[in-house]
Each structure stands twice: as structure tokens, then as C-alpha cells.
Write a structure and sequence with these properties.
By secondary structure, the protein is an alpha/beta fold. Helix content is 54%, strand content 13%. The protein is built from nine helices and five strands. It has a five-stranded parallel beta sheet with strand order 2-3-1-4-5, with helices on both faces.
Length: 195
């Protein structure tokens, strides 16, 4: 199965790009959503999370306490790495299982930290979606009503686009000025022949 990784910083519009492939009938694996699901559904992940963060990291309804977890990891790199070390392997394993059940010419793997996690090494092709910072901030504020400061803090914690560009096969500038549809159509045709 030919695997295409799509990534981009917060507010870059990677979901919009993934929607194009989805409309073309290509299965899209959203790693961030799957990570949230696996945190709640995998007994192995749950037991490891409780071992490291205490039983109260899960609420009474058996769902992870997202606020408590966010407060713990937001300003602690070691704790964030610990969560990633628990969750990433489970997401990775599930992705490969998921791939075996797809019938399409290729699949798309959407992840915010495709490069940071090293998972890009398991892709056949990677696409980086970028956008000017001001546009990204405006998009996120509109989407989830964060403050400008909150969005800037989140951007500061992500790798800069310049670093990601060195690792990406293609960079798409989603700045609402350049036409991206012709690029996506061309990529889709390319992937179909490789897949």
C-alpha cells in the first residue's frame, strides 16, 4: 500500500487538503483523532497512562481527563514525551492494521507531528501544508475560539516550517492566493500510478 503523509502546523489547513483526497475516494487516517480514541479504548494504553499519571487521569466515564492531561503536558517536555511514548506505538500499530483493510490505490496519513514523531520515515511520500502565520492564527481563533496568545503559544511549540520543508517531498502553500487544486489533482494522479 502506497502511503502518503500529510502534515502542517496548527491552522495551516491540512484538513482541507485531506478532504480533497477523501472526496477522490482515498482513505484518510487522522492520527490525532485516532490517538484520542486509542487513549480511551486501548486497555494497554489506559493501564500505562494510569501507571504514569495516576488513576484520576481518567474520568468516571472512562474517558481520559483531557483538561488534566493538557495541564500536565503543556509546559513539561518530559511528560509530553512520556505520553507520546505510550500513545504513538499504539497509533502506529493501528495504522498498519488499518492499511491492510483498505482497497484504494493509496492511503493518506494525516498527522500534526509527522516529522517530529519520526513517522514520516514509514511514508512513501510526504506533503507539508504551510500558510502565513497571521492566517494560521486567524483560522484557529475562528475554529476553536482560542485567544491570539494561546494560538501563538501552540505555534511556538511546533517545529518551524523551515525544518519540516527539509524533510517534505512537496510543500503546498495554503495562503488563499495560490491555486492548490491543480497541484492536488497532479499529486493524486501520480500517487494512483505509484500505488
Amino acid at each position: 500500500m502506497f502511503k502518503v503523509g500529510i502534515t502542517g502546523g496548527i491552522g495551516s489547513g491540512k484538513s482541507t487538503i485531506c478532504n480533497f483526497f477523501s472526496l477522490k475516494g482515498i482513505p484518510v487516517f487522522n492520527a490525532d483523532l485516532e490517538a484520542k480514541r486509542i487513549m480511551n479504548s486501548s486497555s494497554l494504553v489506559r493501564s500505562q497512562m494510569m501507571l504514569h499519571f495516576g488513576n484520576d487521569i481518567y474520568l468516571a466515564n472512562q474517558q481520559v481527563d483531557r483538561q488534566k492531561l493538557a495541564a500536565l503536558i503543556f509546559n513539561s517536555e518530559p511528560l509530553l514525551q512520556k505520553v507520546n511514548a505510550i500513545v504513538h506505538p499504539a497509533v502506529r500499530n493501528y495504522f498498519f492494521e488499518w492499511c491492510q483493510n483498505q482497497q484504494a490505490p493509496y492511503v493518506v496519513h494525516e498527522a500534526a507531528i509527522l516529522f517530529e514523531s519520526g513517522f514520516y520515515n514509514m511514508m512513501d511520500y510526504t506533503i507539508l501544508v504551510t500558510a502565513p502565520e497571521q492566517q494560521r492564527i486567524d483560522r484557529v481563533i475562528q475554529r476553536d475560539h482560542s485567544t491570539r496568545e494561546q494560538v501563538k503559544e501552540r505555534i511556538a511549540k511546533q517545529w518551524p516550517d523551515e525544518e519540516k520543508m527539509k524533510l517534505a517531498n512537496t510543500t503546498i502553500n495554503n495562503n488563499n492566493r495560490e491555486l492548490i487544486l491543480p497541484v492536488l489533482i497532479e499529486l493524486d494522479q501520480k500517487f494512483r500510478t505509484h500505488g
